[in-house]
Design brief:
globular, mainly alpha
Length: 146
């Protein structure tokens, strides 16, 4: 198996595991992305654009999920002070009640897995992943020039 296929296989396995986890939570990926982003945001707010960028989702997909959550009373919208065309979203109390167990259980899963993996190996894993991405970008730039 060449390097590209090996990386793809590992990424695919991680994606499958995450999809399985999200299914166990009773959600689809898109619904999870919106709830998790809002619940994990340091200031409790984010824009639809931020969710799109974080999860590589189309604008219309995120818009539809947000509309559904608004109708359920889980999120509220307010104009952004920086850009009046943009709307900030935040969870309502009802939305926080829905999101809290999802975020708590997800953090338990991944914090536990990383603890079992070990702090040193976890730090090395993330460092190497970051370095590998930078090397790949450099190679892409090289190939563009050639």
């Amino acid at each position: 198996m060449n390097g590209f296929d090996l990386i793809g296989a590992h990424i695919g396995e991680i994606d499958t595991m995450i999809d399985d986890w999200i299914s166990q939570l009773g959600l689809g990926y898109n619904h999870f992305a919106v709830l998790h982003t809002l619940a994990s945001s340091p200031d409790g707010q984010c824009t639809q654009k931020q969710i799109c960028q974080a999860y590589y989702l189309p604008k219309q997909t995120v818009f539809n999920v947000c509309k559904e959550y608004k109708e359920k009373g889980w999120i509220d919208f307010q104009p952004s002070p920086q850009d009046k065309r943009e709307r900030l979203m935040q969870l309502t109390e009802l939305g926080k009640q829905q999101a809290e167990p999802i975020v708590r259980r997800t953090n338990q899963l991944f914090d536990g897995a990383l603890a079992q993996f070990g702090a040193e190996k976890s730090a090395l894993l993330f460092s190497l992943m970051s370095e590998f991405c930078q090397v790949c970008y450099a190679q892409m730039d090289k190939l563009k020039e050639g």
